[in-house]
């Protein structure tokens, strides 16, 4: 059985995920996740339709109180340091994603130039490698986030194997999707809001 | 290009009556007087006028912004010439003469410098006009317009002496060459600061004198859509400034045709001649005074990218210009604009902008604004097309983003979550529209232009992107290939870019 907070957070991030996608998003097996989901549905914290799950207002409230409690239990000072270190990688990742989508910042990349794409993918591979020590530190501080390393690696492997959608595709666990969710988790854990962060231009 | 030859390398110091054969260059005359010269050379009806050349401006500057005495004596002679030509007298008499004093530089600087109309308006003139028209409202209207414009422009009250009015108006218009906004405009466009402006002084005609009078503007072809038809507006009983400023209720030219068919026919004939003589689409200002047509100004029309492209091709087909000239007139970015879907340029003239932000994902989307995922679902369930507006987007907005026609955010830039996701799923997106946008847009139907970052009120008609099969674009492509011996597959945009970089070295 997976931690309730992990599953609720994953449902929140994904909107209306299918059960199987939830399992990979929390790095768990379907059978383990299925048990937690059944309990959540029974307690009225989420509802299921056509194999997809979404939060009820009660589920959102429950998630808020769980994350508030979590914030009280972690080493917030160390996490704040980690978040500051994260900022540099975050800016770099965004730049790489924009290069992936746009050439010269304006023209859509139609992915007909393999040389250009290869260069951008190489930058992502490099960033990924440099980011690993910080990611490990973050997982040490907040063990609930332990599913992230495998999800980043899985997305990167698929990009390197030539499946472009795993670079920044939404609605799948692409590198950008996973990154964004991690960022969202860090914003919540450090007691910030996305709107504050947008103001400070760390998140937009 | 025009009937006026550039015979003088340096601007000549001159104040001359315009007669269609001054032989002065556009450099000396400025755009406005040069247009009048072109019209006079064709024998078209233009109110008598004279010009103080850009050379006079140089002396004005050199003499501490004062009109030199010899020039002023010349101005008085020239006003007497206008009196003889119009049978009116300046500043009084039974048939008074009023004049307009207009700026006009060789390089177009629209709206950057001053113009003063109705100069010469005095108490005596007011009286004479009232007696002449039997309508005190008309004379009062002219006097009020003059005083307002004079005081607003020159920052002082109107002198009683008409000659002093004229002198101050000329000096004021010369001085407006160095106004902060004119200086900033030139700096933006790399126009030299020392060129100076000419001043054109022209006998006023009145579009507000009676029912068979009015003012209008006319484009010899539609400057928005690129259509071949004449496009214009007419205000019965108005003065020119009303049309230009969009102040009064303008009507289509068909109203003029219905009211004064002969005048309308004469106007259409003049428009055709001016376009042929100018070799390009003209933007013409005209006034009708008691049924009589007067042309005040003509210049090459400013146009939408679409119109510029379509007009150039049409004019080649009509034998008015050759293929090289057509290619000279078209820029790659104008063609690029044609290759995208776009809001109908005709609809844009009356469209209301409700918000602006940074364009983040290309395309145009129309829909009713929903503020969150559940509102998106509700509206879609009711069969509506939807636009999602958020302060910023979050991961759980993604499913909703993929089911809407456009995304708008208050905060963020080109690397924001909304921008990245919208580009991936090919949904038009405008980001960073500013605080309060979401509330302002809630529930409205809007048109979101992801190319320009502009959001319009209502559902505007969209023009589909042109394709390579577009007959105008394929003609241009063929001409550009033939001109440069480019291979059969050469791309029009690339050829135009190469052409313009080559020309900038010439």
TrEMBL record, chain A:
InterPro entries: WH_DNA-bd_sf. It comes from the Bacteria. This is Uncharacterized protein. It comes from Halopolyspora algeriensis.
TrEMBL record, chain B:
Signal peptide: none annotated. Residues 385-453 form the PEP-utilising enzyme mobile domain. Gene3D superfamilies: ATP-grasp fold, A domain (3.30.1490.20), ATP-grasp fold, B domain (3.30.470.20), Phosphohistidine domain (3.50.30.10), Pyruvate Phosphate Dikinase, domain 2 (1.10.189.10). One of its GO terms (molecular function) is pyruvate, phosphate dikinase activity. Keywords: Kinase, Pyruvate, Transferase. It holds the Pfam family PPDK_N. InterPro entries: ATP_grasp_subdomain_1, PEP-util_enz_mobile_dom, PEP_util_AS, Phosphohistidine_dom_sf, PPDK_AMP/ATP-bd, Pyruvate_phosphate_dikinase. Residues 64-251, 265-318 form the Pyruvate phosphate dikinase AMP/ATP-binding domain. This is Pyruvate,orthophosphate dikinase. It comes from Halopolyspora algeriensis.
